[in-house]
Design goal:
This protein is α/β, with parallel strands linked by helices. The protein has nine helices and eight strands.
Length: about 230
């Protein structure tokens, strides 16, 4: 495993992607948001009207589309068939759909391979739901971020409002609760903390406080790794 790997897992709205992106920028690492790789497939399924009950159609879609990830000025952009669809992937509908398709072994196999390939020669902070338990079991540092359902739903609702995506708080909360259930109870790579992960609850924290907390943990770990190599 070339490069330092930091895994940050947790449920929707816990702040994984935002915190990971900021911390990665501060320490000069690449941030990889693996949730976006599932969302882009969900987006393609919705866009091309693929029948979710027909596994052959989903397999055909996976073989037919081209997914590309680019990093520009420290930010991750997702391309579907050469089109930047990054801003289309955060709606509750796409989030729920991505949770549904993540239960298919062939989807997870394809994306796990993609995620490892992208990160193999980099120092990365990779966030998702099974990074520490599946994608990088031997990550140098594993963190599991969480927060109360109400707080996570509030954050996601405010995020969607800023992007002028029409929705309401109760719908966002209901969708998030359903996704929590689906993600934690699926038989394949369920959402759960790795046995050696640090569990950080961000309920009540400002973004700045959460970033400071994670940044200190990460810097302490990097210092430890450097000292161990001396």
């Amino acid at each position: 495993m070339v490069g330092t790997k930091i895994a940050i897992d947790g449920p929707s709205g816990a702040g994984k992607s935002t915190i990971s992106e900021i911390v990665a920028h501060k320490i000069g690492f690449t941030h990889i948001d693996t949730g976006a790789t599932y969302r882009v497939i969900a987006y393609a399924i919705s866009r091309f009207n693929v029948n979710l009950k027909n596994e052959k159609e989903i397999r055909f879609l996976l073989d037919s589309i081209n997914i590309d990830i680019k990093f520009l000025e420290g930010k991750q952009f997702i391309y579907l068939n050469c089109e930047d669809v990054t801003d289309e992937l955060r709606s509750p509908k796409i989030s729920s759909l991505s949770s549904y398709i993540s239960k298919f072994p062939f989807v997870r196999k394809k994306l796990t391979h993609m995620q490892r390939k992208i990160a193999e020669d980099k120092n990365v902070i990779m966030d998702g739901r099974d990074i520490g338990t599946k994608v990088f079991k031997n990550a140098d540092l594993k963190i599991f971020l969480t927060a109360s359902l109400d707080e996570r739903a509030k954050r996601r609702y405010e995020e969607l409002e800023k992007k002028e995506i029409k929705t309401n708080f109760e719908y966002v909360r209901k969708s998030m609760k359903e996704r929590d259930t689906n993600d934690s109870k699926r038989s394949l790579s369920p959402l759960k903390p790795a046995t050696d992960a640090l569990i950080i609850d961000t309920t009540g924290n400002t973004l700045e406080k959460s970033v400071d907390t994670i940044l200190k943990i990460v810097r302490d770990k990097l210092s430890e790794l450097i000292n161990n190599k001396k």
